[in-house]
Amino acid sequence: MFSLQTIFGKGNQFFGLLEEAATAAADSTTALYRMLLERDQPPALDAFRLARQRERAIADQINEELVNSFVTALDREDIEALNSALVRIPKQVERFAERYALATQLLDGIDFAPRAAMLAQAATVVAEMVRQLRRMKLEEMKHLNDRLRSIESEADRLMLELYRDIYAGHFDGQQMFLIKEFFEILEKAIDRCREAGLVAYQIVLKNS
After folding, report:
1. pLDDT digit string (tens) for 112-167?
2. At CA 177, angle to CA 122 and CA 173, rounded to 5?
């Protein structure tokens, strides 16, 4: 006979899987930041493809566990929402890296690293928020959510500076188009981090 503790102890694997997914997303952003710091080296894409494969494999495992598990540690819709949000982060990072590798010669002198550093910071905060789901401490999660929101606000400010430089005519037409596209991809990646963090925050709000 199964005890209630045995039954309700199941489903805790989702914490570990979501933590792995958040870590994979954060690792992809760190790899991007390092790539952009090493502008004298040819861009290497293996790290981003591996991160995406890792993320997809974890997402598939989460979906499989949802089908096979009678009891889950979190509401199923919350697991699905957070899983979906985390998958989108390395997707945007890989998109940037692949396009950047094709356009490096046209972007000489353009430094994307400061914005990529902010993306890496945001993804690191998201990973910590996902780890905090085991504890369900509202104050700690609120502090992390405020940090993530602050990073997003600073990223928005930097985007306004970028548009100011574009409209001031500091770049030629081709560069202007490419710079705008690349910064918008980075902005969208930060937005994906914000979305994932918001899902994690709302989970704690609901369960605290």
Report:
1. 898 999 999 999 999 999 999 999 999 999 999 999 999 999 988 887 877 777 77
2. 145
* Separation of alpha carbons 51 and 91, rounded Å: 9
Which class for 178: exposed (0-12), middle (13-18), buried (19 or more C-beta within 10 A)?
middle
> What are the domain boundaries of the chain?
4-207
* In CATH, 4-207 is 1.20.58.220: yes
Count the helices and strands in the chain (H runs, E runs). Answer: 7, 0
Find the radius of gyration of the CA atoms of the chain. Answer: 19
Q: Which positions ≥6 away from 168 have C-beta within 8 Å?
A: none
The answer to whether the beta carbons of residues 57 and 102 sit under 8 Å apart is: no
Instruction: Give CA separation, 182 vs 26, 100, 165, 179, in Å.
Output: 19, 8, 15, 5
pLDDT in tens, 152-171: 999 888 878 777 777 777 77
Cα–Cα distance, 94 to 57 (Å, whole number): 16
Q: What is the pTM of this model?
A: 0.88
